[in-house]
Amino acid sequence: MKKKCTALVVAAAAVMGTTLTSGVAAAGTASTTQAAKVSTAGAWKVKAMATLTVRAKRTTASAALGTIPEGKVFATRDLNGVAGGRWKACGDTGKTWQQVKWHGHKGWIVDSCITAIF
After folding, report:
1. Is it the case that residue 15 has pLDDT exceeding 60?
2. Distance between CA 104 and CA 94 in Å, rounded?
3. Where are the alpha helices (DSSP H) in 20-111?
4. Which residues have CB under 8 Å from 17's CB, separation 6+?
5. Which of 69, 72, 111, 105 is CA-nearest to residue 89?
6. Which side of the chain, N or C, has fewer Cβ within a 10 Å radius?
7. How far apart are the first and last CA of the chain?
């Protein structure tokens, strides 16, 4: 839930006239909020909350392309995810997948086992 809220906060900041520069939202107040957006790659920085299997397609039956170790910080395309096959992981069930590029492979990971980095 936290990762999806981040996208809404960034979008709301843009609507309210906040300027986003180099991953930092600068508002007209004394406080600033660091966004998880990686400005150069157009991706979001996230952290793996468990070892993640990178799959070729958005299904657990798909070929495994590799694994992302627990605690690793990496980039994902966006925080909204894409619907795919149902999964059960990290104490949750769902069917939302995140696209990643890991060691030269484009693939998919389950949505529940990542958290946005601020």
Report:
1. no
2. 27
3. none
4. 28
5. 111
6. N
7. 15
Residue 7 has pLDDT above 90, yes or no: no
Type of residue numbered 15 = V
Q: How far is CA 25 from CA 13, 22, 38, 72, 81, in A?
A: 8, 8, 12, 25, 23
How many helices (H) and strands (E) would you count in the chain?
A: 1, 12
Say which residue the tokens 């799959």 belong to.
55
Residue 42 binned pLDDT confidence (cut-offs 50, 70, 90): low
Q: 43-116: what CATH class?
A: mainly beta
Distances (CA, A) of 50 to 15, 53, 73, 91, 113: 34, 10, 11, 11, 6
Residue found under tokens 């495994």? 64
Q: What is the pLDDT of residues 49-106, one digit of tens each?
A: 999 999 999 999 999 999 999 999 998 887 888 999 999 999 999 999 999 988 988 9
Element (H, E) at 108: strand 105-110
Burial grade of 32 (CB within 10 A; 0-12, 13-18, 19 or more):
exposed
